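[job 4471] stage=fold_predict status=RUNNING
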Amino acid sequence: MVDMPKEVVDALADFHSLKMVGTINSSGMPNAVMIATVFPLDQKTVCFADLRLGKTKENILDTRRFTVTVLKLTLESFQIKCTFSGYEERGAIADKIGEEVYTKIKLQPRGIVIGTVDEVYSTSMSNPGAKLA
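[job 4471] inference complete, writing structure tokens
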């Protein structure tokens, strides 16, 4: 588990940043989906709302790994590699994130996927592939 740099936390917290979650299944087949509801819980943890997850949730439960790519409006971008640490339908995190999601897009999440941050990379054109954490 590592700490995300402040610039990465800020990018994840910005609702206008474009966010994509990537997974693989046990056979190695990749899956990537746009998920606007990715948020930092703190410098070591990310989460996202399960609004209509299908294959993404299956893959995370199967392989326990996922990656988040975030692209800011300035075109600065980052990749965050994560290990699945939990799924919460009710509780402090689900309530907090569920309220934030409902406020922004008027949808109620089924639950919240939670992951710990393992590695962070720049995917910006100015510094592609640089390990940040």
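[job 4471] summary: The longest strand covers residues 77-88.
[job 4471] exit 0
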